[in-house]
From TrEMBL:
Specifically dimethylates two adjacent adenosines (A1518 and A1519) in the loop of a conserved hairpin near the 3'-end of 16S rRNA in the 30S particle. May play a critical role in biogenesis of 30S subunits. GO terms for cellular component: cytosol. The lineage of its organism: Bacteria, Pseudomonadati, Bacteroidota, Flavobacteriia, Flavobacteriales. PROSITE patterns: SAM_RNA_A_N6_MT (PS51689). This is Ribosomal RNA small subunit methyltransferase A. The gene is rsmA. It catalyses: adenosine(1518)/adenosine(1519) in 16S rRNA + 4 S-adenosyl-L-methionine = N(6)-dimethyladenosine(1518)/N(6)-dimethyladenosine(1519) in 16S rRNA + 4 S-adenosyl-L-homocysteine + 4 H(+). PANTHER family: DIMETHYLADENOSINE TRANSFERASE (PTHR11727), DIMETHYLADENOSINE TRANSFERASE-RELATED (PTHR11727:SF7). It is an enzyme of class 2 (transferase). S-adenosyl-L-methionine binds at H12, L14, G40, D62, D86, N106.
Amino acid sequence: MSVKAKKHLGQHFLTDKNICRKISDQYQKHQACTRVLEIGPGMGALTEFLLQRGDLEVHVMDIDLESIRYLEENFAALGERIYDKDFLKTDLKEVMGDQPFGVVGNFPYNISSQILFKCLEYRNQIPEIMGMFQKEVAVRVAEKPGSKAYGILSVLLQAYYDIDYCFTVDEHVFNPPPKVKSGVIRCVRNERQSLECDENLFFQIVKATFNQRRKTIRNGVKQWIKGKDVDHELLTKRPEQLSVDEFIELTKFVESTL
């Protein structure tokens, strides 16, 4: 039995075992977190190497029933840790309980950003994310201030995770091959427990300013400071120039004007 890749699910099955091994080896089990949830395992190319490590309790989740059946038939070691669920719609505490777990996967490109935002919701339970994305997304997440690639994902993820771009993967090692290159990144939860500002407002300001990235910060936050005689050095800059700490400072300033 094999699984047919489904375009509507964004499936591109990784066929190069060396790359699967490399991803598995670079998952570092941050903070001694031995439980790991693989998203979209498909036919288990990466699952195989995660299980071989012997130091991980591997859980897998896939929305594709054909993949679920394949995993049940070929990976008996997983037992009941195979979940027929939509990651984006699942209460992860119902599946993984309250204890920490890492997230790994060759993520479907069409929902990869949403997967990261979902992980952000559970950031205090997910100490590490190790995964493959479309290269453009991987670069954006890991990018530093001052680059055109630096954006909303960069700031929001880097607020809570230290991110390393690990390596690039060519198109030909997938079946079917995607039309773009892929990139593997590793995100490790940093020590920032809170942002020292209103986190919801922080998220709103980051999104609002980057939605007008060609304009200055003042234009991006005018819905909060409109009509007020306020000034701050950060208001004269563009969003891609601001670090996470500066966005926190900006949020605290906007809060002070409300």
